Amino acid sequence: MSLDDFLLAFFSLDILREAWPILWQGLRMTLLLSLLVVPLGLVGGVVLALLSTVRHPWVAWPLMAWVDLFRALPPLVLLVFLYAGLPFAGLEVSAVGAVAIGFFLNTGAYYGEVLRAGIESVPRGQMEAARSTGLTRGQAMAFVILPQAVRNVLPDLISNTLEVVKLTSIASVVALPELLFQARQAQSVTYNATPIMAAAVIYFLLLWPVVRLLSRLENRQLVARG
Amino acid sequence: MGVEGVGVEGASMTRATSTTQAAPTLVGRMRPPPRAGGGNPIVEARGIHKHFGPLHILKGVDLVVAERELVFVIGPSGSGKSTLLRCLNRLEEPSGGSITVDGIDLLDRRTDVNRVRQRIGMVFQSFNLYPHMTALGNVALALRKVQGKTRAEAEARARAALDRVHLADRADHHPAQLSGGQQQRVAIARAIALEPRVMLFDEPTSALDPELVGGVLQVMRELREDGMTMVVVSHEMAFARAAADRVIFMADGRIVEQGPPAQVFGAPQQERTRAFLGQVERH
Question: Which helix (H) or strand (E) holds A95?
Answer without folding.
Answer: helix A95-120
